[in-house]
Amino acid sequence: MAGGGDRARSFNPILFADLARKNFGSREDTLKNTITTLLLTTAALAVMSSAALAQNLPKKIGYVANYSTHEWYQNVIKGMEARATELGIEFEMRDANLDVARMVSASEDFMAEGVDVLIVTPVNEEGAVPLVRRAKEDGVPLVLEGNPVTGMTTMVAICDYDTGYHAGVAAGEYAKEKLGGVAKVMNVGLPLLSATVLRSNGFMDGLKTILPDAAMVHDLDGGGNPDRALEVSSAALAQNGDINIIYGINDSSSQGGLQAWKAAGKSQDGLLVVGTGGEGLGFINMMDTEPSYQIEAAMFPEKVGFTSIDAAVKLFNNEAVPAHIVSPTAPMVGTDSWKQFYSLEGTTRTINWEAVNAITPAEKCMKTAADL
Amino acid sequence: MSDISRPAPAAGSTLARLTQNNQIVLLVTLVLLCLVISLGAPQFYSVDNLIAILRQCSLVLIIAAGMTMLLIAAEVDLSVGASLAFSGVVAMDVTNKTGSVALGVAAAILFGGAVGLFNGLVVTRLRVNSLIATIATMMILQGGVYLYSREAVQNMHLQKAFTDISTGYVGPLPVPVIIAAVVVIIAYVVLRHTTAGRYIYATGANERAARLSGIRPERLKLIVFVVTGLLTGLAGLILASLMNAGQPTAGRGFELTVVAAVILGGTSLTGGRGSLLGTLLGVLVLKVIDNGIIILRWDQDLQMVIPGIVIVLATYLDLVRKKNDAT
Amino acid sequence: MGNLPVSKQQMVEIARALAHEARVVVMDEPTSSLTPAEVALLFEVIRRLTSIGIAVLYVSHKIDEIFEIADTVTVLRDGRHISTKPIAEHTPDSLIHDMIGRRIENLFPRERGPASAETILKVENLSTTDKLKDVSFEARAGEVLGFFGLMGAGRTELAKAIVGFDPIRTGRISIGGQPLTPHDTRTGKALGIGLLTEDRKSEGLMLELPVLHNMSLASLSSFSSGGFVDEGRERSAVQEFIDRFRVKTPSLNRQIKYLSGGNQQKVLLARWLMRGLKVIVVDEPTRGIDVGAKSEIFALIDKLAADGLAVVMMTSEMPELLGLSDRIAVMAEGRLTAVMDRKDATQEKVLNAAIA
Lengths: 372, 327, 356
Description:
The structure holds three protein chains of three kinds. Chain B is an all-alpha fold.
């Protein structure tokens, strides 16, 4: 978890989501020790959704969110609710609202009320360790979402590096075809968080598999928020006229980069913008209206919720699960590509479960914070 | 010192004479900065970059014009960052819902003005210290904007006029730069050449003396709060246009940039002293530093560190100058 | 300690100095906010200190005090040492001569004629919530109406109430026949009443601003059209007053904080006179001003009355009161206790009324 200084700068909720979602750094090496377990359960994972139906189902699952008002978690909760409803499980969410004490008390309340499985997004590791121990002692199965904690049974989370990497590969193919094989990247990044650094690294590594000469011309700190991203991008674009790919570590960053491009009066011909996250309506709007916004590294928060419920069911049945259950991500490529995974009605987007469930998640992350 | 008076005959050393005028110090700093940066990165002088700098300056300047008046009147508004974001959200949302850019523009500016009115009433009627009152307003707005809209309000209306507010040009100049120039010129004239401007200085310099002289300081302050609010709404509109979205998360820390620029420009936090010319230079210095760090590819964390050092130095010089002035 | 009266605070300070076995005690203008009784007490203490071998360095600009308490007197002027002599070798005139570098023939010159019969300021049954009780008086064009009272008698409160600065509870104030409603300084200014405050620093001066802006503050609207200030007209008007009042300043742009107290006071007086007033209220007009400038202020006040203004002067200085006033009003505990013509007034009569 990031230290105090990081917390201070992570006041912005978008930043916070990144920070909280996946940044537990060195804990990842426990993963390596569980490769065997992982391999054994691969088959089960692949057919998880159908298998779940055949299992004994918990009556009630409780979820303690760390910050439920954020867009990302709103969608995670949506996914949990959808899956729980589908399976006929009673589901209830309580919000810790970034407060460790509230996280612990909400979890204890759930356990006292006798939920069959508990899902928790840890506010921070220190506060969650005793909680993990307590759940074990009480025999309540516990699934962690987003961040690992010492002593945990399992965690559901996406792979940041992989997300960037696959988007990078897609961008490489796009550049090869449409941009004459040239890739001069402006990274609207966030060096503060390991999760966002992993995305940027993954993007460049993926891009280079297709275009080995691809270069990161400018590595910016856009603060993860749109106005700052716009400001720093303006300067970078003014300096480097040859930039032709803008990568943003979240949708606000890519939007800031793209708007800086537009503000400079440049045509979007010959430009590729790649965003990351896909948690709101912003990327949908940009894909629809901005000709250069062609790739979105989608993280499907709803699917994270979905996967968490399935993991809960498995734990309830005492099935073996890996320490890190990967929730799948995938690049959407092309103007209408988002329609494959989402439908939009007014300002409400609905996930297309069939399409998202068809994505095969990786067995393990290619790189984690431990590799940085 | 303040541009309202020609400097008194210089006394003391050459350094004292040179530092006599805060604006000259800033101007020299600015020129040196440009020189150093352009040595390291010749692209600094590219038209694209200069326009990028001016555009960034314009947002800060529009609000800083109001903030300068407020600080001169010995008040401060720390809610401008939050109000900036909120009015941007309002601008986009209203334009989406009505399909009218004019209504969106009006809504944003009026929203900002209403925030200013609220601040002004709390400060002048309830007599809450403006630092505290506007921090409270900032909190209200930061929370309130999420009640209004959970997520960024996207541009659904696709009106060209709306995006032109930030990315359009009149001749070679971007629209926001022209707006900022108009705002600054008007504010300059008001502060320097009108009775209202004089009364603002008087109120900040000595509120009781101003009242004894038949001025109504509360009313004056209320008006300046509203003006700052209106200008913040205008800036919020431009920001929403620039980002092509109403972003609830925008504007964090913006109030500090504005206040820092105004103070760097020689305006006193205790009121009664300051000038718009100084503010203009202060904004330019801060934004050139910001730009230079990126262009020189220095660590971006310096974007916070260096302005901090510059403000300490500028304030110190100001003290030295005052001391020389006294002898 | 903050709640103690100033006189008691001073005693505590002196006791503290003695507790540290001070051999020399320095007192800087110690009587500026004391009542006559308290001054007497302080002097008693000073005499006792000197009798036990402690030196007292007593800084004051009040000549009568010096003659009462000092053994040796050192005169400083403009930061320079002028003279050090035993007090016996001084007369008041010689001391004043050393202080201001010239001789003052008459501290209270009277060049104005008799006051007119026209009542300009009329105050009826004025009360405020905290101090004033049922105060009624009139002031006529061309007269100096002196208000005397001990500390806390309500002089300053009265001054602030009649110009509209402080709120009143009951009563009527009219200037030139027009009632002061609404009761605020804006209306007061419009009707032609202004206050020269006793507290220059916190209520009069805009220390950081130039002499120009300080002087023109109340009359700015007369130099402006459509809200725009005509700085040329403003400057020439200000310059005229600078010359007339002999204000010593290197330029109109000099920050007023660098001027001496006397010059600051002249600027503040000019602030009102530039506007053309009917009534000017002056509250302790010579507080913190050296003897030389004092005589100039007295001459200015005389001149104002000669020009037909009603001057309402609040003072705690008996010589000033007796030297300048046409009529004398005495206050005690928020009430008006006596109003008398100058020719009927004596120090005893005034003091008796002030103590009543």
